[in-house]
Amino acid sequence: xxxxxxxxxxxxxxxxxxxxxxxxxxxxxxxxxxxxxxxxxxxxxxxxxxxxxxxxxxxxxxxxxxxxxxxxxxxxxxxxxxxxxxxxxxxxxxxxxxxxxxxxxxxxxxxxxxxxxxxxxxxxxxxxxxxxxxxxxxxxxxxxxxxxxxxxxxxxxxxxxxxxxxxxxxxxxxxxxxxxxxxxxxxxxxxxxxxxxxx
Length: 199
What we know:
The chain is an all-beta fold. It has strands spanning 3-4, 10-12, 22-31, 45-49, 55-57, 68-74, 81-87, 93-99, 105-112, 114-120, 130-140, 151-156, 159-160, 166-168, 178-180, 190-198.
């Protein structure tokens, strides 16, 4: 999780009536080059052949290099639901359903630290009965944030991104706090500067 530096804390928001000030806590969070590896459609689980019955896979799963959103790509004409089970950045269990739309890559919205099992459905059409699971370049954030503006800056390979990252936040669901840098991940370092505040 993110580390806060008390030396960076400042008080804001005190008005003439001396209402309670807010404390702003600045933080920096880093992903190594290995953790920010390039995404691919089959990085998590290679192609599986769908059968007439659902399959639960727990072996031959490659764990994400960092907490990040995943993706599912089915074979042509497949429309079943793939369920991915795993853990979030805080090691709590999470799951996400992906509905295949033929051979379209379906991106996820929850950031997985680990994948413990993948439930593949029975095939819907007896043609191109395949499915793969990959990762995406959407990274899981280390904190549950009150606002997307709490991410102040994103640096990729040491360079400040001129276009802000796409940030999704939730104050209740850890896996729903994500960051999609403007640049595609390519195995170079990424770090963010941000803040949180308390009353």
